[in-house]
């Protein structure tokens, strides 16, 4: 593992870039440093895990194809550590790796960029993901029956117990809770939640499935996040106690 030390430390956050191609690592590092990030580099999955353990990153850019542990296993292990369960992950995938890409999203990856990619686009995606993990302008605490989300603290609870949500899962649930009863297409959710003008609609499908597994009494028969056939999804408030209040 190498850490870029030839430029001043960034101010936008720390990013760990994991890719076995030294050229890709170097190009991505340069663009991220220009954007103000401190960048650490790893060429294998084991190096990535050691680097993240020694100095936890604010975000991980992770290639799926690595020479030892594959990116899915690295993502799984990072997500398995309680202190790192909500660290955003942006995956790098080859054009034909749709199955692996969906598997990565199911493990909790927040975004992905398909190779070959524009380093500038990747830097913008990193900034977009990290921006959503910071303070929010709308700090209302939202409650719907047993569900409570506090966007200022980035915490979510169900029946008083904490919910382990990734950055995108939290954003998607927050959006649903603050727009109950309105049906949204997958494209609209990509734009409103992910900030994408275009993208793979399966990203939304996977995140909705993961949310249902965490908030629905019977995920296979969802009562909150319902499918609107031919349109997309709608959040149905599960209790007359649905309300919004000031954040604390």
TrEMBL record:
Keywords: DNA-binding, Phosphoprotein, Transcription, Transcription regulation. Residues 14-130 form the Response regulatory domain. It comes from Prauserella halophila. The modification 4-aspartylphosphate is found at residue 63. This is Response regulator transcription factor. Residues 139-237 bind DNA. SMART domains: REC, Trans_reg_C. The lineage of its organism: Bacteria, Bacillati, Actinomycetota, Actinomycetes, Pseudonocardiales. It comes from the Bacteria. Residues 139-237 form the OmpR/PhoB-type domain.
């Amino acid at each position: 593992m190498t850490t870029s030390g030839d430029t001043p430390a960034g101010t936008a956050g720390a990013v760990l870039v994991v890719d076995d191609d030294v050229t890709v690592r170097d190009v991505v590092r340069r663009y991220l440093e220009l954007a103000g990030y401190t960048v650490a580099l790893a060429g294998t999955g084991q190096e990535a895990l050691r680097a993240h353990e020694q100095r936890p990153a604010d975000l991980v850019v992770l290639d799926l194809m690595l020479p030892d542990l594959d990116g899915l296993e690295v993502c799984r292990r990072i997500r398995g550590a309680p202190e790192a369960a909500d660290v955003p992950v942006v995956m790098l995938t080859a054009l034909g790796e749709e199955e692996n890409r969906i598997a990565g999203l199911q493990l909790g990856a927040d975004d992905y960029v398909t190779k070959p990619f524009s380093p500038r686009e990747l830097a913008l995606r990193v900034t977009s993901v990290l921006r959503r993990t910071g303070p929010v302008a709308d700090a209302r605490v939202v409650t719907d029956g047993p569900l409570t989300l506090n966007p200022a603290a980035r915490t979510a609870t169900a029946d008083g117990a904490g919910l382990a949500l990734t950055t995108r899962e939290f954003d998607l649930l927050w959006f649903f809770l603050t727009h109950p009863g309105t049906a949204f297409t997958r494209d609209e959710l990509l734009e409103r939640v992910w900030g994408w003008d275009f993208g793979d609609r399966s990203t939304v499908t996977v995140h909705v499935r993961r949310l249902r597994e965490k908030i629905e009494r019977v995920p296979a028969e969802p009562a909150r996040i319902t499918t609107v056939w031919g349109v997309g999804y709608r959040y149905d408030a599960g209790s007359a106690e649905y309300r919004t209040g000031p954040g604390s």
